User: What shape does this take?
Amino acid sequence: MEENYNPKVFISYSQDSVEFADQVLQFSNHLRQEGIDTSLDQYEESPSEGWPRWMERQIEESDFVIIIGSSGYQQKVLGKTDGGKGVKWESNIIYQKLYMSGSDNNRFIPVVFEEDDLKYIPTPIQGATYYNVSSDKGFDKLYWRLRGVKTSEKPPLGKLRPLPKKERKTLFVTSLIDIKTWDKAVWRGAGFCVGYTDLPTLLLPFCNERYAKKIFSDWIASVGKNDVNDDIRISLIEGDVPNEEKGYYVVVGTNLDEAIKRAESQGCVIDETMILNVSRIIRANPTDNFKNYNLFKEIYYEFNEYYLAPAILNEKTGQIVPLMDYAIHKKKLIYRDVKDIIDNDQDAVVLYQNKPFRKK
Assistant: This one.
């Protein structure tokens, strides 16, 4: 609205009592003193056009219509009392205006003198902003609303904050497997030696002696001849696999639990660290109906310790020569069934990477 424009406002209310009518009059007078051109039935003695047309014209010509919520107003609007023809007439016109506008309300403003009277506001305008004018603050808010002046300006739109930088996680690489050395050594499976040494021996046969010795000499340099913490992890995974001959998997890798302990002792926070571990896997298919495999397993469970040693395989003759000088004393040997392996398992490598079996 223009700065010097005097808004025209019609006040619709119920004369619940003489005191309430006086309160409405004082409210209207206050608005007029502040430059708001209020229209109120109490300012009229008997309009020449008659009260019904006068009320309709006030609603039609006013910029705003203030509806004062009270018990009497609600009773008359709902038709729960015989009197109040003026309120019923005004409310019908107001309801019709809202109906014709598709329920868009820019003109009809609910006002109360007491907070408890909010429940008497007519249903169609209950969703509009109401004003409790019993305080100066409430009256002022209504006043500036009638003047079309916003009491708080929306600040200009600022720049969006830059996205927070993602914390780079540490890649913790731990592996006792030198991929290039293993590729050159050409690993061919597993062998078992029982009765020739004080402990059962698990052999890892290779075709290339030079690189087989390098694998084990590197391990000895890292964990010692006696792998006290079982840093080298060996698991034998049993069970039938679809589309595979009877046999078992041999998985050679790193004991992650021990690797994590060492990392944490050096101040590495593993919770925020990605771990890269390299394992080697092979499928062995015994030709002796698991005789040597089961004998080794039985004796291992008796001693709960064994030797891990390289061996050289002559692929032409099938002869296997153990290299016991490179043997490593170990205790932990993991036996598992393939059915017990799930995703994210350290031995899950047997389920993927070109393997015919995937756990369902």
Q: What stands out?
A: The chain is about 30% helix and 20% strand.
